[in-house]
Design brief:
This protein is of the alpha+beta class. It contains 23 helices and ten strands. GO terms for molecular function: aminoacyl-tRNA deacylase activity; kinase activity.
Length: 469
Amino acid sequence: MQATLEVVSAPLVVNTPSAVRTLLAEWAIPCREVTDLPGLNPASKVQAVLLDDASGTLMVLFGQSHLLDLTCLASVTGRHMTAVSRDRLEDVLGKHDLKQLPGVPVLIGSPCLYEEHLLLQPLLLISSGEPGLLLEMAQEDFRRLLGDARAGHFAEPVSTLPFNLDCPDHDAEAITQAVKAFTARRIQQRLEATIELPPLAESVRKIMRLRVDPHVCVDEIASVVETDAALAAQVVSWASSSYYAAPTKIRSVEDAIVRVLGVDLVINLALSLSLGKTLHLPQDNPQSSTPYWQQSIYTAAVIEGITRAIAPQRRPETGLAYLAGLLHNFGYLVLAYVFPPHFSLICRHLEANPHVPHFIIEQHLLGICREQMGAWLMRYWGMPEELAASLRFQHDPGYTASHADYPNLVCIAVSLLRNRGIGHGPCTPLPDALFERLGLTREKAEDAVSKVLEAEVLLRELTAQFNQA
C-alpha cells in the first residue's frame, strides 16, 4: 500500500506534444518549457482562441492581461465571429494529438490575427498544447513563429475595465446608467431603420471577407468578381487601360489579376466601385467641383505614391491606405442619398462659399457633415475601423489617436491635390508635424503628386471607366 501511495503522489511529468516540438525544431525557434503558475506575468502569456463564421476560421492571439472585444474585432476584420464549437475544436486538436489550443498558428493551419500589444513584451509565453505547460520564447522568435499573421487592436486591458465588487450603494446609479445606454442604442437602431440605408450586395460582402483574409488566392477573388458580369468587365478594362500598360491583351479576370493588377488592387478597386454603385452618384453637384471618381482615383494614386516614400518598417498597410483614398469622399454619396431635398441646397452654398470648407457648410445646414455620415456608415456596414477613422478625421492635421496614419495620409493627399486644382474648398497649409509623424518629407509628398499629375491623361481614362460602371 505504501508503494502505491508513493507512485500516485509522484509529480506528473508533462512534455511538449511531439507535433509542436517538431514544428519548432523545423523553424529553429529556441524556447524553454515553463510550468504555468499564478505568479507569471499575464501580459506575457499568450491566449489563443479559434473563431469562425461562414467564411471560415481565424486564430486570434492576445495577452491574458486583456479582454477580447468581439465588437472591436468585427470592426478590425469586417467579420462577426464567435468561438468554434467544442466538438470542432476537439477535431482540430485531435489531428495533432493536442489537449489545448497552442499559440502556434502555422500548426493549426488557420489564418491568424494577433493583438499588437503582444510585441511590446520582451518574452512571450505560449501554450504548448498541453495544459499547465508553457513555452517561453524571445519576442523576435515569437514574431517569426507568427509567419504572415496580421496585427490589430481588438482587446481591452482588463485593468482598465470598471467593475464594482464592494460598493452596493452605487448599484442603483449603475443600473440607471445602463438603462440610459440601452435606450440610446434603441434610438440608434430606429435611426438606422428610418434612413433606410440600402443593404450591402452579397458580392460586396464577399469582397470584404476576402480583403481581410491574409491567405486569399487569385482563384478566390476571380471567382467572386466573375459572379458580377459588370464588375468582371470593369476589372478587365482596368487592366487593359493605358495607365497599367499591359504587355499583351488581357482576356480574363485571372489574366488581369496575375499579369497586371495584383490581388490587393483588384479587391480595393472592386470594393470601392461596388460601394459606389450601392448609393449611386448624385445628379446634382456643385459647379466646378472635381467629379467624384476622378477625385477618388487621384487621391488613392497620390496616397499610394506617398506610402511608398515611407520607410518599410514605418509604412502603413499599402492596400488599406489606397482604399482609404478611394473611399475618402464616400460621405458625399451618403449625404446625397440620405438628404436628397437638402443636398441641392448644400451644392448651392458650396458654389457661393468657395472660401469655406464644405464640412462647415454642411454642419450649418444639416447639423452633420459628410465625414461623420461616411464614417458612421463604414462602421454600420462592418468595414475596417481604419477606413472609418480615415473618413472621419481626414481634415484634422493634428489627429494622433487610433489608426492616425490613415487619416493623416488622406489629409496630405487631399490638401496637396487641392493646391493643384483637384478638389473643392480653400487651400490651407499643412503643418510640418503632420509629415514628421509619418516619417515623410514634404518634398517627397509633393513629388508623389507631381508623378500622378504627369499621368493625368491615363488616369482620366481609368476614371471614365468608373463613371461608365
